[in-house]
Amino acid sequence: MITEDLVKMSSNQVISFGEDISDVSNTYCSTDNEKVESGCMVTPGGHKYYVPISVEDNLKPFIGKSFQSLESGIAFYSEYGLLSDFNVRRSAEKTQSDHTILSKYLVCHKDGFSDAKLNCPEGSKSKIGKRRRTMSGRCGCEAKLVLKYSPGNIYFVYNFIEAHNHPLVPEDSRHFRKGSRKMSTCSMNFVFDASKVNIGTMKSFRMMKELVKGYENVGATSREFRNFDRDLKAFVGVADAQMIIEKFKVKQETDPCFFYDVDVDPAGNLTKLFWADSTTRRNYELYGDAVSFDPTFNTNKYNMVFAPFTGVDKHNKCVTFASTLLSKEDVPHFTWAFEALLKAMGRNPVCIVTDQCAAMKQAIPKCFKETNDFPASRHRLCMWHITEKFPLKLGHFLCKETEFM
């Protein structure tokens, strides 16, 4: 019986290798007294081989067709594969001693067989490595294109087999083909912008689907989105610190009030980073009498401490004065951060509020000391941190007393 897959392949027809296809009808032929649907052709021997019929003749390769380079020939056959609803895979090649490619085989993506056990001799004790549990689609398809080298760096079609022994990709599944799954510049920018606000690749893929009205219009699958995000992180690699410094340099050129300071260790690794823009420096000038410094936020990748300098404006809203990243919470690192704040702002805060950190207790008097222009800053402890430690230090029973709290 003709399968349902053949019925769906209305844009394909069937021929057989090794048989005279001139006698095969373009509409239908009889095989075991059964009629074949229109759009498919079956040889008298009952073999089914599919040939694309929706491709124009000028886009089909033929024996003797020449190309100016090997890559142009590969690109031509790849484009033919997209139009013919199959994927092209590069296969064997023959080269000279000077690495000149004499012949190149381009095959269908279903060429060969993927069962690794067929390559193992009987009785062999060689172990096959663990493989991913994916469905194999290879069925020994013999469709191929052979390009041969000709003097003058010209390649011509030496052999071309057009027919396939498997149904081609149906129209409603064309966007799942490997050759069709390519991320556009718009999709790449969307993934990059979404990562800036901590939106993952799967969520950004679903959002992109809603923007373009369907998965088939995205042009890629969620796997391509994840791979692009992986490649983007690999491209950044260990150069992300240099990238942020270069970004600060550009920002300082456009905004003269932007201030930043960096420090590295003897190995060249970034250990301290401080920055403040024109808005935060203006906030410090107006509301910088009382400054809160809370280094309690750790980054994920490098385990650096993010410590913002914050305060309160006239509307009792929290405002930021500056930000810093520190690799350690010790006296030298805190001293460097406080000195960077003085460089950026030009004066001591009247009061600085911190948690009960012994390192900051030593660093604050050294940095915010009294000068001819400004008095020394007063160091105060955060009441929130103190009240949070009441149950641990005093016990829950005493803390339950309303008058005491």
TrEMBL record:
InterPro entries referenced in this protein's UniProt entry, alphabetically: FAR1_DNA_bnd_dom, MULE_transposase_dom
Protein name (record): Protein FAR1-RELATED SEQUENCE
Domain FAR1: 76-170
Location of the MULE transposase domain: 291-388
